[in-house]
Specification:
about 0% strand; mainly alpha; globular
Length: about 290
């Protein structure tokens, strides 16, 4: 599922700078592919030991202070520090609600880090480069954690929080693209390339939504309470994302959400899944998306 986020952020950057580089990331698993059946005797992996550092230790390594809002360059600096930390073992990375590093992880995924990007009191010409820096860094952090997650060095808790953070960032990214496109000069030779980039973003977004729904079925690697938390994050973001999907991806998403309502293996995610579907349908009813 997590590869889908790589795709959308690889596509976002070319729209901002006007080039026509096509993403090479592998496509995400789509919602039409059923999850693999659990292997006999398999259970969610045990919780790895918390070997994370303290906030002060991370700061000494160059991490921005956790008790202030991070801007785009702060996220980029944090990503560099985390890569260095992970080189000594993935268990040294900040962890969700850790007594040692929880404050750093909370800052890394904080919604308020996106507030400045939403502030239209600052011109889009200033905010868009900051957004690119922010999204590139958060995307790299997600990929870093994924690499150690598959090794069993961090938990599903960290991955759910990072995915929730990326869903929120994707909403802001698309809002910024919508704000940025009208400022483009249609007579500029790069205009057509940029508009094609916008369509690739919409195509990549389908993978993000499908991948998020797929994660809800991954019972072997994600505990029920963690998947339920992800449903909550999706309730807050998918109603903003699904109306922007291409028609086929919208139909696929609605079909998947409908099937999930009666899937006995997902009964533990109700009533959240029901609310999610209702909010997506309500958003589509009020949408003018083609």
């Amino acid at each position: 599922m997590y590869r889908a986020f790589t795709l959308i952020f690889m596509v976002l950057v070319p729209v901002g700078v006007g080039c026509d580089t096509r993403p090479t990331a592998a496509p995400a698993q789509t919602a039409t592919q059923p999850p693999a059946p659990p292997a006999p005797g398999r259970t969610v992996p045990p919780t790895p030991a918390d070997e994370s550092l303290t906030p002060e230790e991370y700061i000494r390594l160059g991490m921005p202070a956790h008790d202030r809002v991070w801007l785009g360059h702060d996220m980029a600096q944090a990503e560099k520090v985390l890569v260095s930390v992970a080189a000594g073992g993935g268990r040294r990375l900040p962890r969700y609600r850790s007594d040692r590093s929880g404050a750093v992880f909370t800052r890394m995924t904080a919604t308020e880090n996106l507030d400045g990007l939403r502030n239209r009191g600052t011109t889009i010409g200033v905010r868009f480069p900051l957004a690119i820096s922010h999204f590139q860094a958060t995307n790299q952090i997600l990929k870093l954690y994924l690499g150690v997650f598959v090794k069993g060095e961090v938990r599903d808790s960290e991955m759910v929080e990072l995915v929730g953070s990326q869903l929120r960032a994707t909403v802001v990214a698309l809002d910024l693209v919508d704000e940025f496109i009208p400022t483009l000069d249609k007579d500029d030779p790069t205009y057509s390339n940029r508009m094609r980039g916008l369509e690739r973003i919409r195509g990549g977004l389908g993978g993000v939504v499908a991948g998020s729904l797929q994660t809800l079925t991954e019972r072997e690697t994600h505990r029920a309470d963690e998947r339920a938390r992800l449903v909550g994050y999706m309730e807050a973001t998918l109603p903003r994302l699904v109306p922007r999907l291409l028609p086929g991806s919208r139909a696929e998403t609605l079909t998947r959400l409908e099937a999930m309502q009666t899937d006995p293996t997902l009964a533990d995610l109700q009533p959240g899944l029901g609310r999610l579907r209702e909010r997506v349908l309500a958003a589509l009813d009020g949408s003018s998306a083609p």
